[in-house]
Amino acid sequence: MLELLANAISELDEPLALELVKKGLEFGISPLDIVEECRNGLVSVGDRYSRGEYFLGDLILSSEIFSQIMDSLNPVIEPNEKKPFIGKIVFGTIEGDIHDIGKNLVGSLLRCYGFEVYDLGVDVSPDKFIMALTESGAPVLCLCTLLSPGFEAMKRTIQLVRLIERNTKIKILIGGLVNEKVREYTGADAWVDDARRGVDICLQWSQELAQN
What's the number of CA atoms in the CB half-sphere (13 Å) around residue 47? Predict the structure, then answer.
């Protein structure tokens, strides 16, 4: 059933995807396993977009499908499977970029694992990230972009973050259309192009912060 769900998302079959989620919950499938399979489906959508099989409208549709799935899963996840609170994270898509598929997926997974996520949305200016970090006291910042011009905004944001740091260095993760060269250029601590890997890094950082 989970493989069928990933395929339904890949094919942008909204009615089937929602029905499979409903049936999955009825059969006792873990909501977190359902979210993970959604990730596989969204990765497939991204691959098809890269090959020119899908267009921007298809990416937007897949994001809407995932949002509806999460609306149905959140009431189930929160009381039963959400892990104890383990840390705060400020999250958003960088200034000049309005893509949110990857951001929404990672944000949902982080919440499932016990993080309090301050999602600032898309097209977020460096000043807004700084304000959110200052007000929330979050020790982790996640920046996303699927556009190469966004690298400059990432770099400006990270430079500002380094200026406001006090005794503890804020950990910064970048994701989307990024690689090791982009990480070095922007000054981030780590980069990911996979949602689950992003969650794993944030979990590792939270453990390190708890020990210090």
Answer: 10
